[in-house]
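Supplementary Methods S3. Input chains for the assembly prediction are listed below.
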Amino acid sequence: MSGAELAFAGLAIGIIPIVVEILKSYSVTKSRLKTFARYHHVIADVQLRYQVASANFSNNSQLLLQAAVESSKEVSEMVKDPQHAGWQEPDIEERFRNFLERDHQLCEGIVLKIRDVLRQTQTMLSILDQDSTPTFLQAFNISSKENRYRHALEELDQWNLKLSNLCQQRCRLQKRRGISSHCIIRRTAPKSVSHIRVASQTLRESLQDSWSCTNISHSGHQAKLSVDASAEYDTVQLDVVIACQRKVLPSNSRSASELPIWLHVRSVTASRTLPAPTVSSANTITRSLHAITHPNIDEKSDTTVKSERKKLRKRVLFVEPEDDRDKHKRKSNRESSQSIPENDSLAQTLAMVDLKATKSVCCHMKSACSRPASCKDPCLGYLESVSSPQCFKLIFYDASRRTSTHQLQPRFSAEAFPISNMLQDLKTLHQLTLAHKLAITTLQYHSTSWLPLDWGLQDIGYFDNTTQASCPADTISQQLASLHLSTKFQWKVPEVTLDPTQSPKDLKYLYGIRNLALAKLGVALIEICSQKDIGKLATTPTAHDVISARKILLERPPCLESLGMKYVEIARKCIDCDFSCGDDLNKEDLQSAVYTDVVCALEEQIKRWKQFIGL
Ligand SMILES: [Zn+2]
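Predicted structure tokens for the full assembly:
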């Protein structure tokens, strides 16, 4: 067959049917060779070479299929089974064509050639099968045919090699092109991610700079920030608990420790410092805010709502934030009637205090929080942070008076523990939920003072609410809803600094840790699936947790695969910062890649697991 004929034949058939035929043909020939095996002294070598040729072709097919089929499990199943439904997919040939581009015809030509050689070999073998000549003649026949087999095998080897080269070249070309943009579609990370990061860092800096305390029994203050923050338009809502550290006195018992101040903080961003609104504007603002938080109630035309939203962006300040819609739905009517603030109380909130001007922010908040319950004003005051080009207003609310009081809220008496304590008790859904929350936490709080550079599970806390009688699984779900990050501010004892030999720069250059925050997320994911501390999981001590994690990924202990291979792959990607988007998590590219490949991928796993267990 000439080259042109070959190309023509190829065009008419397509690669898929030929590949399938070859895969079938190899297995048929393999079984024929088995019946032929009684002549092993002659044929052993031929048989081995035939098996090698078969393996080569299967591997090449696998390489090709990987470019057209997403699931690696499906790829290997297809190669093993020529009857696999995957071969029948309507657009698979088209995907091959896209991958091979101009080499598509060439590839068809090669596989056709391989098929023809195999057809000939099979014919030869079937003739030999029917051979009933006396043994010595058979032996003679075999030795003469042996040469023909060897010739056929050589030809097969050559064509397999050509196919292999072509596949590899194509794969390299595609990889260099950024793994064909048409097969990786990434979702953009939500804007809230960076809004929350900036607002939380502003809050941390404001606490450090503006917090004052005249209570001599306090030796320091600690803030615990809930990882579940929300952002809408230019406002970010953060939940924070402030605990005052008492000086250690011999008479101090545990029970005498102060209750923490539990706050909601609303950070409003504006491009410049805004004048305080007048009382008369309060009702308009309330209505506008209501339109935003309860869009279903007010069915106005889109344009009206839009214009109100625009207005709000510039004007909303000092207003008691309304509930989330979800939280609102959860509340009973009785609670709603008690808690929806009256316009009066909204007016009261306007009498806000610039906390910076108070003598002691700590004492002010303490006394404001201990006001009688009849006082409905949840507002405590504000702090302003002016940094070019943006200005932030942080408005503090007393959480116990807030309307959105969440059923999952930590009790004031609840104690905080590091999440590493509860690893052993987690069930699959908890593990996936925790992994998902940590992925969002990394995106939202990396490079802020809330999340240490070299963070770990010991830095993520939860509130233990064991007083509530519920089943252990529910208790864990509630604890997972109370995840928070801690930071100390105005702490008299100097904070522990990083080991200078383990600075992110050194870790980058010495150990190739491209992005420490992400790598530590990968480490945490491994700890979650194996339910063990990375130090206990590693067989030998290493210079850094990330190196231990890499070793574990190579060693593959069985506990690593408890949440499936896709999960392990997500962890590996984080550890190696393997997203083809550089290593700077402040860049939108990498944020979106992590959002798609980690956050959304884990979300998908949670969804599938819930379906599986019938939730
Ligand atoms: Zn204090």
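The CA atoms of residues 183 and 406 lie 42 Å apart. The chain has three domains: 3-183, 191-401, 415-613.
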